[in-house]
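Late entry, written up from scratch paper. The run itself happened at the end of the previous shift, but nothing got recorded in the book at the time, so transcribing now.
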Amino acid sequence: AVLVAPRERVQEVKKIVQKLKKAKRTEAETSPRVYRPWGSYETVALADRFQVKRIIVKPGQKLSLQMHHHRAEHWIVVSGTARVHCGEKNFLLTEDQSTYIPLGHTHRLENPGKVPLELIEVQSGAYLGEDDIVRFDDVYGRTPAKT
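Output as recorded:
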């Protein structure tokens, strides 16, 4: 959101935040863009059984090897090159290519290139929360799954 206001009234933004909290709006607590060690993502659309995210992965970075119990994912590369690990398969995707990550499959996304990787992720399933991520390997030291 962008706030345009006279300088002497900018402190009134607190009142706006209070109204958002009272209405239980997520904008009061979260930023549209979430930063991670590997890059960032932002939610573009969200409904009961789907979520659309714009993901940017920095050159040479990768997400954790992970899986989800409650959602599947579709990845569409907008720019850059993606190295995808899905189950036993490893392959590259370039601009205008896509892949499907079935529910319950281990997967990882990497940017092997020298430019940022940008993709659209469509998640679908019964539960879309970030706490559905089960990590098996993570180069950033986030807790892997317990065996």
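The mean pLDDT is 91.
(Scratch paper discarded after transcription.)
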